[in-house]
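pinned: reference chain
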Amino acid sequence: MFKASLTIALLTLTICLIAYGLGACRKNDNPNGLLLLDQQIPESFPDPLYRFSDNPLSQEGFELGRKLFYDGILSLDGNFPCASCHQQPAAFGTYQHDRSHGYNGSHTLRNAPVLFNLAWQSSFHWDGEFTSLFDEAAQPINGHIEMAESFAGVIDKLQSDPDYRERFRKVFRSEFIRPEFILKALAQFTGYMTSSDSRYDRYKKGLVIFTPQELNGYQLFQANCASCHPEPLFTDYSFRNIGLPVDNFLNDFGKMRISRNAGDSLKFKVPTLRNVYISSNYMHDGRFNTLAQCINHYRTGVQASSTLDPSLAGGIALTNTDATNLALFLRTLTDSAFLVDPRFNQP
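pinned: its structure tokens
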């Protein structure tokens, strides 16, 4: 009896010591007492590629990133925050605009892509030039036709602001603001944004039903579009030539600009179709104003070339009714709650 009691006592002590040790590890991982956040992973989504292992998510880090995202302090003249090109009503794309505007009245080469579900992407920008959330955010800050700043200039401004100094000290445990801290904070904000509560998502859960037109549009989508825009992310993040003629003013040949490989000519990243109904303008250079124009391109505007995606040879045969129903289905991909989510509003 005594031996059994001693064994139980030792076992209890061991469990307590293990629990204490685990608690101590968690404390050491979070020495500033930050409010840690769990990454949002919708039930229907695959595992994300980015899990914030090098940038632990916290409420304080997220809020710092949100403040930076909306603050013109990242641009040379103060007029071009990240939010000037990535606007919440357009699912953090460029709202009803072709190409992004930048410093000193300049225009960028391309339409700003939407910013959500970024943790599932392995490359960023229309040509896949960047492979991390950090690198892709650094480019516009330093780009002469975008924000036109430098990290040295940004840090000088941030260091002179007591609120920013305290926020960075709290999150990153440093009295000195460094470029990687700025990029990590922005990545916490943009990488945390997830859109997965559209009418389509509720239909898949059996919570709503589609109209006959929406259902027909869904069937048309599955037959004609899903090879490049597979569910549930509605993109395979590949790079494809969809038969758009080259804009002779921009001379943008897509991924070939980065790879220098002629086989990549006119190939651009396949965008997600989530929130597509409200994220105009469309295509890499924003040449189309409406979703109907996009659909009509696939019906009658596909231009043949040596790198054209084989699935688009000859275009996609759709009647006018088909085109309307397809557009009605695409409208069901709108996540209305995401567009007004107060967590992502300007602080």
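why pinned: The domain at 199-338 is CATH 1.10.760.10 (Cytochrome Bc1 Complex; Chain D, domain 2). The longest strand covers residues 239-240.
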